[in-house]
Amino acid sequence: MQALAAAAPQWLAGQVAADWVERYGARIDSYRFPKGENVRQKWAEQVGRDGFTILETVFSPAAPGWLRQTRARGPGP
Predict the structure, then answer these.
(1) pLDDT tens digits, residue range 40-73?
(2) How far apart are the first and last CA of the chain?
(3) 67: closest CA among 75, 77, 55, 52?
(4) What is the pTM of this model?
(5) Which of 18, 40, 62, 77 is the most exposed place for a label (fewest CB within 10 A)?
(6) Rounded to an integer, what distance in angstroms lies between the CA atom of residue 4 and that of residue 37?
C-alpha cells in the first residue's frame, strides 16, 4: 500500500475508509502489535480484509490501469 500511497496519494485517499488512517498511519517499524492472542487474531483478520479490499479496488475497471503496474519496493537502490 505504501507504493500506492506514493504513486497516487489522492486516488488512494478517496478509496480507503477513514479508520484506515488510524490502523496504518504510523510506519510499520514503529508499530506495536496488540497484546492478547484474541486481539492479535482480530487485528490480523482486519489487515487481511483491508488487503483484499485495496486489491479489489486497484483491479476494478474504474481504477486507472497504470495502478495495476505499480510495484512495492523494499529498501535498496
Answers:
(1) 888 889 989 998 998 899 999 999 888 888 776 4
(2) 19
(3) 55
(4) 0.70
(5) 77
(6) 31
Q: 12-43: string of b/e by CB count within 10 Å (b at 16+)? A: beebbeeebeeebeeeeeeeeeeeeeeeeeee
Instruction: From 43, 38, 75, 70, select the one nearest 54 (Cα to Cα).
Output: 70
Residue 32: all three cell numbers together: 506495536
Cell of 24: 496504518
Cell numbers describing residue 1: 500500500
User: Cβ contacts of residue 16 below 8 Å, gap of 6+?
Assistant: 54
Question: CA 16 to CA 53: how far, in whole Å?
Answer: 9
